[in-house]
Design a protein that fits this description.
The chain is of the alpha+beta class and 149 residues long. It has one domain: 2-Layer Sandwich (Alpha-Beta Plaits), CATH 3.30.70.640. It contains four helices and four strands. Helix 2 (48-61) packs antiparallel against helix 4 (104-126).
Length: 149
C-alpha cells in the first residue's frame, strides 16, 4: 500500500438520505439429478433453499463486516427468491434502505453467500469419483439494477 493512496471509507456525511434499492442475481450450475433432489426434498443436510435464504439475509446484514470499506447501512428490507432451470438455480436478492449510500454490495454479498450455501449443502451429490466438481459452477453474479429516489 502506497502512502499516496491510503485505504479509506468514502465520506458520505454531506449526502442526503434517500430511498435506495438494489437487485442482484447469480446462478449455480448443478447436475440435473441434484436439481431434482432439491425439488424433491432429498438433500441430506436439509432444504438448501431455506438455508440459502437465511444465509443470504445474514450476509446482507453483515456486508460491512466482510467488505472492509463498506458503510454500515440501516436496511429496511431484504427479499430473496429462487428460480430453477434444467441445470441451474438462480438466486435473486433485493435490498432496500433509506440512507446516504447504495446497497448494491449488500445485494451482491447476499447472492454470493446464498449460492455458496447451496453448493455446500449439495456438494456430496456433485462430486465425481475423484472428489472433483466437473459440472458445478457459480456464475453470472451481477447487479440487475440499482435505484435511488
Amino acid at each position: 500500500m502506497s502512502e499516496k493512496n491510503p485505504l479509506r471509507m468514502i465520506d458520505v456525511s454531506k449526502k442526503d438520505i434517500v430511498h435506495r434499492e438494489a437487485e442482484a442475481e447469480g446462478r449455480i450450475y448443478l447436475k440435473i439429478d441434484t436439481i431434482k433432489a432439491i425439488k424433491e426434498g432429498r438433500v441430506k443436510k436439509g432444504n438448501p433453499l431455506a438455508a440459502a435464504e437465511i444465509s443470504c439475509i445474514l450476509a446482507v446484514k453483515k456486508t460491512p463486516e466482510l467488505i472492509p470499506l463498506c458503510h454500515p447501512i440501516p436496511l429496511t428490507s431484504i427479499d430473496v427468491n429462487f428460480d430453477f432451470e434444467e441445470s441451474s438455480l438462480r438466486i435473486w436478492c433485493r435490498v432496500t434502505a433509506d440512507y446516504k449510500t447504495g446497497v448494491e454490495m449488500e445485494a451482491l454479498t447476499g447472492v454470493t453467500t446464498g449460492l455458496l450455501t447451496v453448493w455446500d449443502m449439495v456438494k456430496y451429490l456433485e462430486k465425481d469419483e475423484r472428489g472433483q466438481y466437473p459440472s458445478t459452477s457459480i456464475s453470472e453474479v451481477r447487479v440487475i439494477e440499482k435505484r435511488k429516489e
